[in-house]
Amino acid sequence: MRISISPTGGTPAEQVHSQLRGLITTGGLGAGERLPSVRQLATDLGVAPGTIAKAYKQLEADGFVVSRTGAGTRVSHSATAVSQTVADAARRLVTAAKADGLGREDTEQVLRAIW
């Protein structure tokens, strides 16, 4: 699992939430798979444990993960991944956008306009 914090990508909690949600929806993290502990991920990313706890709580509220005392936080069995076709198309879009020098926000605007 690869998660990173960028100085320009929103708050650290938003970035962790977004990246984990992306991993779950693209199948990078499967149903029942355990996420790192709050303390471990906070240490790995160099942020406060409260930052990770906030991201995990939001993921739980969104239905992507389930937290149980003593069992940790796991990907919810009700969280579904998008099809491989959609995930591959999204990766191609990101690659093309980066090659053209577009940022995430500009790429999202293009997608919204086409939608």
Topology:
Elements: H1 12-25, H2 38-45, H3 49-61, E1 65-68, E2 72-75, H4 84-99, H5 104-114
Antiparallel strand pairs: 1-2
Describe the structure.
There is one protein chain. The protein is mainly alpha-helical. Helix content is 54%, strand content 7%. It has five helices and two strands. It has a two-stranded antiparallel ribbon with strand order 1-2. α1 crosses α3 and α2 packs across α3 (49-61). The termini are far apart.
Brief rundown of the structure:
The protein has 115 residues and is mainly alpha-helical. Helices cover 54% and strands 7% of the residues.
Question: What is the arithmetic mean of pLDDT?
Answer: 92
Low-confidence stretches: none
Distance between the termini: 30 Å
Report the count of strand segments.
2
Q: Identify the overall geometry.
A: globular
Strand content bin: 5-15%
The radius of gyration is: 15 Å
Largest sheet: 2 strands, antiparallel
Q: Count every helix, treating DSSP H or I runs of 4 or more residues as helices.
A: 5
The helix content is 40-55%
Structural class given helices, strands, pairing? mainly alpha
- SSE succession: HHHEEHH
Please state how the strands of the largest beta sheet are arranged side by side: 1-2
Note the main attributes of this structure.
single chain, 115 residues, mainly alpha, two-stranded antiparallel ribbon, 5 helices, 2 strands, 54% helix, 7% strand, globular
